[in-house]
Structures are given as structure tokens and as C-alpha cells.
Specification:
- By secondary structure, the protein is α/β, with parallel strands linked by helices.
- It has one domain: Response regulator (Rossmann fold).
- Helices cover 40% and strands 19% of the residues.
- The chain has five helices and five strands.
- Strands 2-1-3-4-5 form a five-stranded parallel sheet, sandwiched between helices.
- The radius of gyration is 13 Å and the shape is globular.
- The mean pLDDT is 87.
Amino acid sequence: MNRRKTVLVVDDDADFVEMNKAVLEENGYEVITAYNGQECLEKTRTEKPDLIILDVMMATNNEGFDVSREIHHYCEATKDIPIIMVTSINQKYPFHFEPDEVWLPVESFVEKPVQPEQLLREVSKQIGK
């Protein structure tokens, strides 16, 4: 029997976390949650999710960037976990971010508000079901 893929949803907005947790669980994924960067790092190491959905702006405006680098560059056990970064940063600042192997090691960027269908497509693209 195949085990369900595990997704770690990380955001300081509890409504965002709960809404996306429900969507993912309804579509066959196991979901764990975290509400800040430190909790994300701890759960990434202990739970070893198949994928991380990570917000940028939490305790600081760039916490998600720092967490993605920590996961991919400084921990051998977590370096291959794909990350989908979700953010509304482009609404607040006139920058366009793209995944970058060194500074922003994520697989894709999704703008908030995230439509459930869009999130499911991105998750499926990264890890399947």
C-alpha cells in the first residue's frame, strides 16, 4: 500500500493554514502545519514532509527566504524537500521573485490569494499524489 504524501503548510495566518489543510486533505494528502519559521524547521527535521508550502512574510518580511535557505543549504537530511513559496510580497513591494538555487532555493512561487485548484496543481507537479 502506498503511503499518502505529506505536506507541511507554513504560514502565520491560521485561516490560510486551515483552509489549505482542508483542501489538501480532501485531495488525499496528509498535512502537518507550522505557524513560523522555527516551527517549520523543527517539523521539517522531525516529520520529514514530502513537500513544504512556505509563506515569505511571517515574523519578519523575509523569514520564508531564510527558512528555505536553511532547509536546502544547511541540513543534509532536508535539502531535497521541494518548497512551494506562497506570498503576497509582490502586492506590497514592486519586486518580482523567481526561484534561485542560492538565494531563493524553492521550486515555485505562488501569489496570494491562492486558488485551491492552483495550489493542487503545484503540489501535484512537485510530488504527485
